[in-house]
Design brief:
The protein has a domain of 50 residues. The protein is 39% helix and 17% strand. It is globular. The strands form three sheets. Strands 1, 2, 3, 4, 5, 10, 11, 12, 13 and 14 form a ten-stranded mixed β-sheet that branches. A hairpin with a 3-residue loop joins strand 13 and strand 14. It is of the alpha+beta class and 449 residues long.
Length: 449
């Protein structure tokens, strides 16, 4: 039954998702966020004076915008009196922004919140070695000519050690003098010491998921994304991004999916994370991606007062923890909790957006949903969460085709889901994703009549 404190989603919009080191490589993540928030305001015809807080997810934390939410808000025209906060829950940072807004509104603290996420993985920095940083600091602090020359010599020596170690040990090996790639470190679990791809390899082996099954899933993702793009279906949730320096060129659709991809092409790719025995390749895993998105959230009472017609309401959400080395199963842990809090079962769900970090990870989750053994041993349930019809999962393609800008993906899942619920006249939907570090997140939406 409808309640004034129900949390409703009035509108949602995102930028195109673009493969890293391509069109968005010079676009600051705060600018990507600004574009999404500005368009959200325009589409919803929102009086910005009504906004009570802006919450943005981000994982890269650029040094020139450490509270990136505040930068995004001010650049998008939100009044200075409106506070803004950035949140971080790895892959679910943008979902965290939505659930944080949900709690604010549900509790009666706020009535109008803009939530979202932004990430430019192209701009994640190279971290210089400690000897190099120390030598550079000495150079910056040098006063006399002698001190400067000595410091410069130390800098050159440290730099040469970096070059030598880079050549002799390879780019992935950690050494004392070599610079570190922040994105590689960020995608490596500090507790178990393996990267996200290696966690997917574990699931592929434990759930007996073949390379061929993964490649077929990946191909389907590309085909669905291509079809949704060709029909204009995905364009409805996007806004163009104009590119620096002259802002004449723009990007208006996702860059990453491959309409002409074949299973034969995927089969030729070599395993990337376990080169001898593995099945995970760059073709059946999501690419590094840049993008942003935002949603407008309100209490039902405030939406009615302001004359807004909500698209969907949030029925419930959950986050759950699990073994970091099996982080890809996060949706199988969080979804039943979210469904229980929403008063629903998997049988009630008509659409699912499940983030495709890896094909193996999604397939493992779908198998886990339908497993009595998993439900009893891992979830403490008497029977399985519920079989899932693959036809309702990621109907417009997923992250394998569209990409996964880590701090923004949760918003895309919710935007796509809320709009598809309306287009397809489906009542209930589930948005869920795995989270690096061994967590899962899930949100249950209901289409508004």
């Amino acid at each position: 039954m409808a309640n004034d404190r129900d949390v409703v989603l009035v509108e949602g919009v995102r930028t195109p998702f673009v493969k890293s080191e391509s069109k968005f490589k010079e676009v600051h993540p705060a600018e990507l966020g600004r574009v999404a928030v500005h368009e959200l305001i325009e589409r919803s015809n929102l009086d910005v004076k009504m906004v009570e807080e802006v919450i943005m997810g981000n994982t890269g934390t650029p040094s020139d915008a450490v509270n990136i939410s505040r930068v995004v808000a001010l650049r998008a025209g939100i009044p200075q009196s409106v506070p803004a906060v950035s949140v971080h829950r790895n892959c679910a940072s943008a979902l965290e922004s939505i659930t944080t807004g949900y709690e604010r509104i549900k509790a009666g603290t706020l009535d109008v919140v803009i939530s979202g996420g932004t990430e430019n993985m192209s701009q994640m920095p190279l971290i210089m070695s400690r000897p190099f940083v120390k030598a550079f600091q000495s150079l910056m602090g040098a006063r006399s000519t002698g001190q400067k020359l000595a410091a410069l010599g130390g800098l050159l020596k440290a730099d040469m050690k970096q070059v030598i170690e880079l050549v002799t040990t390879g780019p992935m090996a950690a050494t004392a003098h070599k610079p570190r790639v922040s994105i590689v470190e960020g995608l490596t679990d500090p507790f178990v010491g393996i990267n996200m791809g290696q966690t997917a390899e574990i699931l592929a082996k434990e759930w007996e998921i073949s390379r061929e099954e993964q490649d077929r899933f990946a191909l389907a993702s590309h085909k669905k994304a291509a079809a949704a793009t060709a029909s204009g279906r995905l364009a409805e949730e996007m806004t163009p991004v104009f590119l620096p320096p002259n802002f004449k060129e723009f990007v208006a659709q996702d860059i990453g999916f491959r309409a002409e991809l074949t299973e034969e092409q995927l089969a030729k790719l070599k395993p990337f994370f376990d080169r001898k025995y593995g099945t995970i390749t760059v073709g059946n895993a999501c690419p590094l991606t840049d993008g942003a998105g935002a949603v407008l959230m309100m209490s039902r009472a405030k939406a009615k007062e302001l004359g807004h017609k909500p698209i969907a309401s949030i029925r419930g959400y959950a986050f759950a923890g699990l073994e970091p080395e099996r982080m890809g199963l996060g949706p199988a842990y969080a979804s039943p909790l979210a469904l229980k809090r929403a008063g629903l079962t998997m049988k009630d769900i008509g659409l699912i957006e499940l983030n495709e970090a890896f094909a193996a990870q999604v397939i493992a989750c779908l198998k886990a949903f339908g497993s009595d053994t998993f439900a009893k041993e891992k979830l403490g349930l008497s029977s399985k969460v519920g079989e899932v019809n693959p036809d309702i999962v990621n109907v417009n393609g997923g992250a394998i085709a569209l990409g996964h800008p880590v701090g923004a993906t949760g918003t895309r899942l919710v935007i796509t889901l809320m709009k598809e619920l309306k287009k397809r006249d489906v009542q209930f939907g589930l948005a869920t994703l795995c989270i690096g570090g061994g967590q899962g997140g899930a949100v249950v939406l209901e289409r508004e009549a």
